Amino acid sequence: MRAGVLLAVIGAAGLAGTPGLSQPLPSFPSSLDREPLLAWLRRETDIQAERVVAVTPQAVTSVVSTFPAAGGQGPRVVLRAEALSGETYARTGALSWHVSLNADCRDRRVRMGETTGYPQRNLLGERRVLRAAETEWRAPGPGTALDNAWRAACEPHFQGPFASANVTLAQNEVAAPAPPEPPPAAPTSVPNAPAPEARGAPVADPPRRAAAQKAASGGAVTVQIGAFPDVASAQAALARLGDERPHAIEAAVVGGRTWRRAVVGGFESVEAGERYCVQRKAQGGSCFVRVRAR
């Protein structure tokens, strides 16, 4: 197999600014031993243990789908990952993410596609690009998560870390994806992606449209400080900020429910938005940067 296996080996993700259910703290496994980790996987994710290709202290990575070699191309595998540590969660702004990997089986090389992250478990929430697609092939280091991904694509008898009584931990060769520079607006179409309503796409909310435009008028960059089940809760969160930046409440459908996103605008750059979020997170709040189309 040669063309694609890596959807989540890039190091875990986190999102201290996740559109949240009253912003609960994310759950992480108490241990990376087999039984506690399996129990956590069953409780928090829809990942099947037999499809896991790598476990590192940062992330658990599993196969979503495989595409056999064809047309002169090697196999391609789509992988997804779930963050296993608060450190990764806080660093990248995603609890889950996916990526495709092209595998060159003959020369033991890999090339990763675009990495897409989500603020919630199981690839839910508003998607954003965490890392651009690679243009060059590279050789994975032996015993790393990336090497496991290549083996899953190229070795028919490859067995994942749960195949034995003890979980085999891989080395985390690839650093966790950095926050986007800048993160693009949510794409209008993504091959094989779920319908927008399943991924937290904004929906029309006429009473709030003018306010949303006001928030955007201060600059293309905004930050989201939370998502709430009702307008009153979102208004209260914005009122507690105590600053005069333009703000808005947007409606979005996630998992069949309508949430109210509290959004703050008026930032001249992604860096300015990130500085704002750093200060807010230091005070125990949630926050992540968004970029609107001009």
Characterize the structure shown.
- There is one protein chain.
- The protein is an alpha+beta fold and 294 residues long.
- It has two domains: 1-178, no CATH class; 196-291, Sporulation related repeat (Alpha-Beta Plaits), CATH 3.30.70.1070.
- Helices cover 21% and strands 25% of the residues.
- It has helices at 34-44, 86-92, 145-154, 206-217, 231-239, 270-282; strands at residues 52-55, 59-67, 76-83, 96-104, 109-112, 115-118, 128-131, 221-228, 247-254, 257-267, 288-291.
- A hairpin with an 8-residue loop joins strand 2 (59-67) and strand 3.
- Mean pLDDT is 76; it is low at 1-23 and 178-218.
Main attributes of the structure:
seven-stranded antiparallel sheet, disordered N terminus, four-stranded antiparallel sheet, Alpha-Beta Plaits, alpha+beta, 2 domains
Write the layout of secondary structure elements.
Blueprint: H1 34-44, E1 52-55, E2 59-67, E3 76-83, H2 86-92, E4 96-104, E5 109-112, E6 115-118, E7 128-131, H3 145-154, H4 206-217, E8 221-228, H5 231-239, E9 247-254, E10 257-267, H6 270-282, E11 288-291
Antiparallel strand pairs: 1-2, 2-3, 3-4, 4-5, 4-6, 6-7, 8-10, 8-11, 9-10
Order of helices and strands: HEEEHEEEEHHEHEEHE
Major beta-sheet overview: 7 strands, antiparallel
The percent range for helix content is: 10-25%
Strand content: 15-25%
- What is the gyration radius calculated from CA atoms? 20 Å
Shape: elongated
Unreliable segments of 5+ consecutive residues: 1-23, 178-218
Task: Return the domain count.
Answer: 2
Structural class: alpha+beta
**Straight-line N-to-C gap:** 42 Å
Q: What's the rounded overall pLDDT mean?
A: 76
H/I helix tally: 6
Q: Give the tally of β-strands.
A: 11
